[in-house]
Structures are given as C-alpha cells and as structure tokens.
Amino acid sequence: MRMILNDVFLGSGLVYFSSPKMSAYIIGVLVPLVFSLLLRSTRNEKRRGLPADAGGEPGYAIRNHRITSPMKSAWEGISTLAQLFEESCKQYADKPLLGTRKLISREVEVSGDGRSFEKLHLGEYEYMSYGQTFEAACNFASGLAQLGHRREERVAIFADTRKEWFIALQGCFRRNVTVVTIYSSLGEEALCHSLNETEVTTVVCGAKELKKLVDISGQLDTVKRVICMDDEVPSNISLVEGSRGWTVKSFAFVERLGQENPIGPDLPLSADVAVIMYTSGSTGLPKGVMMTHGNILATVSSVMTIVPGLSPKDVYLAYLPLAHVLELAAENIVVSIGAPIGYGSPLTLTDTSNKIKKGTQGDASMLRPTIMAAVPAILDRVRDGVTKKVAAKGGLSKTLFNFAYARRLSAMNGSWFGARGLERFLWDFLVFRKVRAVLGGRLRFLLSGGAPLSGDTQRFINICFGATIGQGYGLTETCAGGTFSEFDDTSVGRVGPPLPCSFVKLVDWPEGGYLTSDSPMPRGEIVIGGPSVTLGYFKNEAKTNEVYKVDEKGMRWFYSGDIGQFHADGCLEIIDRKKDIVKLQHGEYVSLGKVEAALLVSPYVDNIMLHADPFHSYCVALVVASQPAVEGWAAQQGVVFVDFSDLCEKEETVKEVLNSLIKAAKKAKLEKFEIPAKIKLLSEPWTPETGLVTAALKLKRDILKKKFSEDLSKLYAS
Asked: Is 27 exposed, middle or buried (0-12, 13-18, 19+ CB in 10 A)?
C-alpha cells in the first residue's frame, strides 16, 4: 500500500523520495497542508463585490460582481408583482401552489399545574393549484369591488400567515388597491395608529384578530368593511354592525360574490404603491413604509437570480409573518419559479411544537420542505433545542455527536483532516440524519434575515441540517434588498456582497470612530441605493427626509443607521448599530446588540437585554432564563426550589448564570466593561404577545426598560 501511495503522489517524475519515512511525512503532512492552503487562497481570490462609481455623499461604494447597473426585473416585460403572479399562474396552471393542512381534531390538554393547552391533530397538505389560486384572487378582487371598496381606498391585512392572506394580497393588486400590512401580534395602540393613519376602509383578518377589532372599534375612524378569513365570527359582532355601521362578511362570501359578478382588472404600474408595510415598532409607534411594485420586484428578481437550482421541484414552508418583508419577498420568489408553498406556524412547526398533539407530525416533517426562511432568533432556538437534547441523552450518543460535529466543523473550516467524502456520508447517516428529520430531512437552503446570525449557529445549521444558509442584510425600507451571501461562500459572520438590485456604500461616522479610511477594512454607516429603496414613510415627511436622500444621478439612498465593514472580496459584515451604542461614565463605548449576540450562546439564556447607563462605569443585564437548562443544573446540584420563579430568585442560580455569561463573553473576546457586572434573572419568556419583543423577535428596548425600571434601578443601587 505504501508503495502504491509513493507511486501515486511522489512518483510522477517531478518529485521522488526513496525514504519511506520521508514519503509518509510528505503524504501525511505537507500535501494536505499545501492542498488546504490552495483551497483557502482560491476561496479568498474570488471577488464577489466590486467598487462602484456611485453618486451622492462620498463614501466607499460596492456593487455585485454580476452587474454594472442595479437590476429592476429579471423578466422581460414584467414590472409589477401582479404581472409576475399572472404569468406564473398561466405557465404553471396545473401545478400545486398554496397548501394548507387539514384539521382533524382540536383538543385541550390540562397540565399538572392546572393550565390548559390547545393541541391540534393536523392531517396532510391539501393544495390549490396555480390556476385555482389565480381564479380565487380574481374572484376576491371582483367581490371587493362589489362590496363598495374603491380603488383609491386602502385595504389592511391583519392576520397570521395563511393562504387567504396571499390570495387577498394578489386580489388587491388586480384592482391596484394598496395593501396595508399589520402584524397579528400588534398591540391596541399601534393597531389603532396604523389603521387610522392610513385611513383604511376595509380590513381582512382572522377570527381572533376580528375580536381585537371589535374591542377597539370605537377608536377606529374610517373602517367600514371587515372580511373574516374564518367562517366562525365572534358572537358580539352584531354590536359593531349596528353601532358602527360595519359590514362584516366571510372570505368565502366575498369570493362567491366576485365569481357571480366578475369585474375586469385594473392593473397597477411599476411606480404605484403596492404595500404600506408597518414596521414592528422596536422603538415607539410603528412607521408605515411605502413600497412600490417596482421596489419589491427588484428584490424578488435579485434573490431569484443568485440562489442556484431554484425550480418547480422545490417546496417552501411558510410560517413567518407575511407582514414582514422577508416572508413577503420569499413567497413571491417561490411563485416566480412555479414551486408549491405549504403554510404552517411557529406553534406547529415540528413534531414537538407546543400546539401539535403528541404522536402526530408537525408541519416540517409532513411537508418535507427543501427551502425555508428564518430569522436568527428561531435558528438560535433550533440550535439550542438540538444541543439540549444531545446533552440530555449523554453517554455514547453525546460523545458520537460531538466527535462527528468536530470532524465536520474541521472540514468546513478548511482543514484537510476534517470529515470529507465517505466519512462525511457516514456521519450524516449515523448522526445527523435524525437531526435533519426534525425539519423534514430534505432541506437544502435556508434564507436568514432580520438580524445578524452568529457564526456558531450558522455552522451548526450547515452541519446538522446539511443546508446552505443564505444570510441576507436588508431593511423594510429597502424591501429586504441590500446584500446576500452567495451559495459557494462558506465563510461565517458576513452577509455577502450587494444584491444585483443594490449599491451599498459606507460613509464616515466620525463620532463613533468609523471611517472608510480605516485599515485593514473600510468601515462606516451602511447606505443602500437602487430600485429596491422605497418611497419613504407614510405621512412622515420629516423622518423620510432625515434618512432618505436622492443623489445627482437620481438614485435613491437609504441611511440605515447600521455600521459595517467591507472585506477584500466585496462582502459586507455588520459590526455595530448607531442607536445601540452607549457611552459609559469613563468614555468607553458599548454596543448593546454586539454584546447580547455574544452572550446568547450561554445555555442558560433564552433571551437577554444588556443595559448601559452613561452615569455608571459598568453594564447590567435582564436575562430570561432557559427553564430546561437551569432546572437541569439545579437537579444536578441538589438545589431545592418551589417553582421556576423561585429558582430564578436564588443567589446560587444567579451566580451560576452570571459565570456562564462571563465565560461566553471571554470566548467572544469582549472587553471587561462590556460584560454585565450584575444581572436580574427572569422566569417569564418575552414573546410578541407580551409586547416585549417584535413579531420578528427583536427587543423593544424602551418598553423593556419601562417595565423593568425598578429591577434595573436595584441592579445599579446594589
């Protein structure tokens, strides 16, 4: 065998060593090392973004290497979402499009402490074809007009993600009606603000959202019609029909009305406003972002062209809020390729999700998607869930998992000694196959956006689920258009080069110490220009003029408030945010988001908010404890407690969690002043329903500070 290896590697006539020991050394050490270095240098040489000649404020501008000018549409003759939808429905008329699971039974389970939980037994997916969906959208459009809704009036969609949401959206586009999108978890004050500011006359919603509307009906100025997606409506609906003069009809009724009384389309132009999308309101009341058809189409076109292999054979699992631009863009991308969309929800996503009846399948294992979109908070929880399950098994299973993971990680980081080829296949079959089954086992691509994704989580998903993660950076104000990592880029912590529809520019922020002249990489505030940049904020000219600028060439730019740096290959990395930076008493700057991302890796942390006060020299933190991890630690240590709330109050628990945070901080190489000196441990989770985080699971800092002001004061006083 040794002779064969010598002949193959060293007997080419160029190099030959007669010493077996020397040959073994060359084969075992130098060849893999050189090969690894060659791989790395090849990877680093590829230019993904190139310098751009951009107008406006001076800065360091980059464009995608595929284009010279920003992309508006990937399809000749198509300039609106309405056109894209119609063309796809004609081309793929008989193929499945919108899938919904059949409800077999709805049951109530009572836990040991007396709390009741709804559990659903869901069957297989049942589909509407592209042709049927187009017909439904046309019928809805006609029915809407028959109800008395005029083109210049606005429709609000206020519901969870489901097929009726998508049909209503496309139906409105058939009549060139602007849609106002509202998160189903929005609080009363923000809901009233959104509906009144946009003077909505028709609201499309689900039964549970209709109950919210009834409760605040006296505060709504312009609503005349409500279309309920569910057949069952609240019993007190007659009150608003009489006292407020509302017309309340079911979604099915509106479709039938339109089918019986068809009206021709009144299609939009590219510059017409398709959507007024209300941000999730992490600070103050939400702002309505005006998006044209051309804005959204630019992002859809760009992402569609850079994700390889998209085809009608793909299957997309939709569960994120359609009121979020990430999901809205993703579903339109899927429609453009003729693939099916299966609707689910975060509460029914997996076999162990909260609302799934034990012993029945969750959405992912039933649908077996090939493509999904996710926000980092959800991916972090997936990682934590798998890690905790592996830790609970212990023994040989844990050892095998950790060894396989280390081998795959080594290979992904460029080491020749990592698991490749046959060994990779073996570990995938023996270890990671069961993990992949959690999301159906066929996942090949994940679109991540909404916030920075940690490198640890990215690698974990790559390895355990065998899926490439396309990490994007964009904002509601840019229709999610900004940057997007390319399929063959295996690096972590970056968000890729600019999308084909965008120019991305860094401009100096001297106050924060970020300059485009910085070495080794230019740094500054991220400014995005191109056709995906929206018109501005609805009825908020002052704020629009503050963050939107039009240059001398007519290109529109949005100033994001985020801080980034460009790598040599033209890929962007998000490193800070202007609003998240606080100056401490002795002049040190603390980036709250950066520190929180580093500390979230602690197994004891479900969520965390760092708090920095300019009048103190140290930070403190509110920490939502992970109940399984903390209770597991308590059991091992023999700590006696009454309930989880009691356990979180105990001094030894707080000390253990704080030590874990310090360990995570040191691993992330945080400065001493960035590490929280004191923490308050909380037992209740932060959810969109509590109003403490947005629908995209971002912290609502102002609300959190107000709610826990007493606890924060005590931390600084103690």
From this structure: middle
Name the stretches of the chain with pLDDT < 50.
1-44
Output the pLDDT for position 17.
29
pLDDT of residue 232: 78
How many other β-carbons are positioned within 10 Å of the β-carbon of residue 654?
Answer: 17
**Does some domain include residue 607?**
yes
| 559 in the same domain as 637 | no
Question: Do 562 and 694 belong to one domain?
Answer: no
Supply 619's token pair. Answer: 């930070």
Which stretch of DSSP H or E encloses residue 417? none
Nearest residue to 668 (alpha-carbon basis) of 556, 591, 613, 583:
591
Amino acid letter at 320?
Answer: L
- Please, what sign has the CA dihedral across residues 195, 200, 204, 207? positive
Structure confidence by residue, pLDDT tens digits, 436-457: 999 999 999 999 987 778 888 8
Residue 332 lies in a domain: yes
CA atoms of 375 and 330, how far apart (whole Å): 13
**Per the structure block, which two tokens stand in for 353?**
């999700």
The CATH number that applies at residue 641 is: 3.30.300.30
Which one-letter DSSP state was computed for residue 587? S
What whole-number distance in Å separates Cα of residue 623 and Cα of residue 656?
12
Q: In the prediction, which pLDDT does 421 show?
A: 79
Number of domains the chain is built from:
4
Pair 360, 377 in one domain = no
β 581-583/589-591 pair status: antiparallel
Whether the CB-CB separation of 16 and 512 falls below 8 Å is answered with: no
For residue 268, the 8-state DSSP code is P
Q: How far is CA 607 from each of CA 347, 542, 624, rounded to the nearest angstrom?
A: 18, 34, 5
Return the SS3 of 556.
strand
- Report the 10 Å Cβ neighbour count for 487: 13
Contact yes or no for 532/476 (Cβ under 8 A): no
Amino acid identity of residue 197, one-letter, is: E
Kindly report each contact of residues 28-36 with a partner whose C-beta sits within 8 Å and lies 24 or more positions away, as own/partner: 32/416, 32/417, 33/416, 35/416, 36/414, 36/415, 36/416
Element (H, E) at 226: strand 225-228
Q: Is residue 206 part of a domain?
A: yes
621-650 as b/e, with b when 16 or more CB fall inside 10 Å?
bbbbbbebbbbbbbeeeeeeeeeeeebbeb
- pLDDT tens column, 155-203: 999 999 999 999 999 999 999 999 999 988 888 888 999 999 999 999 9
pLDDT of residue 282: 54
The pLDDT of residue 30 is 42
176 & 253 share domain: yes
The helix (H) or strand (E) run that includes residue 670 is: none
Dig out the tokens for 702 from the structure. 């102002």
Task: Provide the residue range defining the domain that includes 682.
Answer: 584-717
Are 669 and 562 contained in the same domain? no
Query: What are the E-state strand segments in 457-568?
Result: 468-473, 483-484, 503-507, 523-529, 536-537, 548-550, 556-566
CA distance 36 to 413: 10
Enclosing H/E stretch for 570: none
CB distance 302 to 500 below 8 Å: yes
What is the pLDDT, as a whole number, of residue 43? Answer: 45
- Residue 538 sits at φ, ψ, to 5 deg, of -65, 125
Beta strand 273-278 pairing with 288-292: antiparallel
Tell whether 96 is covered by a domain.
yes
- Is 514 in a helix, a strand, or coil? strand
Q: In whole angstroms, what is the distance from residue 78 CA to residue 55 CA? A: 28
